[in-house]
Amino acid sequence: MPDDCVPYDGEASMALNDAYRQRFEPSDDGRAEVEPQRLAAQEALVSLVGGPLSVDAVQDALEVAGFDRDLPWVAPAGDPAAPSSIGVIISVGGLCLVGTLDAEHAEVETDGMIADGGCVPAQ
Fold first, then answer.
1. What is the pTM of this model?
2. Mind listing the pLDDT tens digit for each residue in 32-87?
3. CB 55: neighbour CB atoms within 10 A?
4. Which residues pair with 102 in a beta bridge?
5. Region label for 102, one of left (φ > 0), alpha (ψ between -120 and 50) or beta (otherwise)
6. SS3 track for 102-115
């Protein structure tokens, strides 16, 4: 490489470009603080296991559990008319509750925010 050229590492640049999607690891104190909301979201999703999967049903169950209807990000996977699963992300107390519901299982975990300061990664 000539001396007057600036070195460029395309692979390193691409890796850095995705840094905004990386999640921060929540502290134990942070997890403990949002545990009541995590349990409420978990119970809401568990109540829907075995029934028809729909975004409206998930939003209704989360609203009954005490979450603002406009707060959770809820999205179907697969065919929107007959999703195979539904993903849920809720921002609470500076952390993210990340859940999945399918015909046989529901789970909600506590995760950190992504580097851009939100819970839902940019598409």
1. 0.80
2. 999 999 999 999 999 999 998 899 999 999 999 999 988 899 998 877 777 889 99
3. 16
4. 85
5. beta
6. ECCCEEEEEECCEC
